[in-house]
Amino acid sequence: MTDTGVTLYLELIKKVIANEIYTDNAAPWWTGAEGAAVPEGGLPGTSAAHTLVGLEGLDNVQECVERVLADGIPGDLVETGVWRGGVTILMRAILKAHGVTDRRVWAADSFEGVPEAGEGSHPLDQEMALHNLNSMLSVSADAVRANFKAYDLLDEQVEFLEGWFKDTLPAAPISSIAVLRLDGDLYESTREALIPLYPKLSAGGFIIIDDYNMEPCRAAVHEYRDEHGITDEIRPVDNGGVFWRKTA
């Protein structure tokens, strides 16, 4: 595929997964759930989109993946919290477009929504009560596989980690990571991804935090950075997300 072909293919993939081509007239997938606190303005997205990430966020994923490929940074591509699979579909499309066959894309999700924030949960997660949106957040693994298949991107380079992060991520058979994208929303979900996976992120690799605008996620990120003396510059992705490049 020529450089022009790569560019056109990936631009089209991003527009399709974000439902920028055939926009539907359905109500947003999020219509509000009693007892759930969400960011100001609610949550975007329509019933047909395969991702809630906007084009700025998808551009960021592409830039990070293509940078690690160009720089020879070792490792796989991982997203924790995949919803309908849009971002991981894009990751796989980038590898295919560039003819990369020695890296895998990992889709880690409970496929049941977010954990219920009960009395033993972190106070910020209890306040968010995001589990009240699980009827919308929950997408089955089979549905995500079907989405990959619709793009002709479901193959041996796509791996699914099904279950709660605390159960699946510590034992995940991932040796090294080049791009790690966290989209677990909550304090506990963010910590449960950072602790086992960040040490596997290669120097020169990127970590993207989708929900940095949410207080529970942001608190978990800064707590982890402080604990491990991480001073790499945090850079904005869009109105909600951030990323940084690991130096060591």
UniProtKB/TrEMBL annotation:
Gene3D superfamilies in UniProt: Vaccinia Virus protein VP39
Leader sequence residues: none
Family annotation (PANTHER family): MACROCIN O-METHYLTRANSFERASE (PTHR40036)
Pfam families listed in its UniProt record: TylF (PF05711)
Organism: Micromonospora purpureochromogenes
Taxonomic path: Bacteria, Bacillati, Actinomycetota, Actinomycetes, Micromonosporales
Domain of life: Bacteria
Full protein name: O-methyltransferase
Transmembrane residue ranges: none
